[in-house]
Task: inverse folding
């Protein structure tokens, strides 16, 4: 019990020190971390820690450097579904939910890595539907490097699962769900995510404010920002992995 509070506290203090998450975001992440560590065990929490550390690391190598302080909405959209898997596992004692937890966070990690390392691709990403080339770093695009990195992200989380149980089939499922989650994220990003244009510098952006001015919606729905896309993608992985594993 003490360690289940201690480990998430260390991570929360690190996040505080790194100044990467707003205070309310850190408090929520800390609470969800305790739930995951206490109900799901240390390995489940280790997998979450890896996602957190690689997310911070990948922000550093992102080609379009922007201020990336995560807020409470980003924590909710990225960690809530995974936490729900652990709670369901604890309540029902059904191992499926435990494996689904790894699937969901594999999706999150794959998407994070694909949208950071993937942007380093020399070739331009393409829009999956129009097959048109996009600008590097524009969300919704798919590059070969991004797809490859998505698979690696899934395999990282799959490998952590192997510590708990050496089950190669589950390793493959988790790896594949990481890949699929990231791919789904790109599709929904392309189709529904709100895109804006800055009326001052005329750049395309995901933000409602640019150059300190309100931007104009040019594509997608204003209600659907990147957090909603991430949440939808997590729910998608949750459902598909349930269907595969049940
Ligand atoms: Zn601007």
Result:
């Amino acid at each position: 019990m003490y360690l289940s509070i201690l480990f998430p506290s260390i991570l929360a203090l690190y996040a505080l020190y790194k100044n990467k998450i707003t205070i309310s975001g850190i408090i929520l992440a800390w609470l969800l971390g305790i739930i995951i560590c206490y109900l799901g065990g240390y390995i489940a929490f280790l997998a979450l820690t890896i996602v957190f550390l690689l997310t911070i690391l990948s922000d550093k190598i992102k080609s379009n450097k922007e201020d990336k302080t995560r807020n409470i909405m980003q924590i909710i959209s990225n960690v809530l579904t995974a936490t729900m898997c652990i709670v369901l596992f604890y309540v029902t004692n059904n191992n499926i939910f435990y494996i689904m937890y790894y699937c969901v966070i594999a999706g999150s990690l794959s998407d994070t890595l694909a949208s950071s390392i993937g942007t380093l691709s020399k070739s331009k990403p393409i829009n999956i539907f129009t097959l048109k080339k996009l600008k590097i770093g524009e969300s919704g695009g798919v590059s070969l490097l991004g797809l490859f990195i998505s698979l690696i992200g899934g395999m990282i989380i799959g490998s952590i699962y192997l510590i708990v149980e050496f089950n190669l089939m589950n390793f493959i499922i988790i790896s594949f769900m990481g890949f699929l989650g990231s791919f789904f994220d790109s599709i929904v990003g392309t189709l529904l995510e709100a895109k804006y244009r800055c009326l001052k510098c005329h750049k395309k952006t995901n933000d409602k404010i640019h150059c300190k001015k309100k931007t104009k919606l040019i594509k997608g729905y204003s209600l659907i920002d990147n957090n909603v896309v991430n949440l939808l993608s997590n729910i998608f992985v949750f459902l598909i992995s349930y269907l595969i594993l049940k």
Summary: Residues 4 and 42 are 8 Å apart (CA to CA). The two ends are 31 Å apart (CA to CA). Residues 198, 200-201, 203, 210-211 surround zinc ion (CB under 6 Å).
